[in-house]
């Protein structure tokens, strides 16, 4: 004899158990975006980020635990010319970490609209465009594989054959903190197109540096409509003060700033 109330209860449990999981799986497509974890930003690098090497094991652990939840993983690489416009050495009598303005002579390019969330959509309305730029030590030079300017990925970083590499800052005359587009908002990298082609709705960002490339990438991701997470303990800032203000600005913009422990609970 089957007890009728027990039967109802089993059906309820099955519905409650499976319904939300199925719904979540069809709506959420996640990407893990590892930003600029390169030798130039690590111990021995010309632009070594304080305690930067500590992100490697946090990122590896996230990948070991949660790889199957990420539809794709993107590794970005800062990828500069030998005489890149962001290098102090490319400008006469300028020192690293000085702030300058770069003037661009426009040759029919399109600019971003005010606010700069989408590049290359509106008339630049002028023969020139001025872009603020901090000057840096020579770093992350394309195809350099050793020494302070090495653009190699961190030696200990776990990678998979399926990882997608996106380079940025490869235009000699334009810097690119964001993994989506350059600092003047003239042109895009491959990232948005790649994420869209996989139907990605949610991005989890980690890497270097929190106050520059992670910050700008996370803001752009949020502007583009991605549900955006930054895993704070898998990042480090160039400077603690700008790191803290980057976190406040990201939170205000609706970016979720979490710890890798919180990620374990979310997954
Ligand atoms: C970065 C400064 C210059 C970064 C790149 O990856 O955060 N910072 N180039
Ligand atoms: Zn750079």
TrEMBL record:
Pathway: Cofactor biosynthesis; nicotinate biosynthesis; nicotinate from nicotinamide: step 1/1. It comes from the Eukaryota. Keywords: Hydrolase, Metal-binding, Pyridine nucleotide biosynthesis. One of its GO terms (biological process) is pyridine nucleotide biosynthetic process. One of its GO terms (molecular function) is nicotinamidase activity. Residues 30-262 form the Isochorismatase-like domain. Its EC number is 3.5.1.19. This is nicotinamidase. It comes from Biomphalaria glabrata (Bloodfluke planorb).
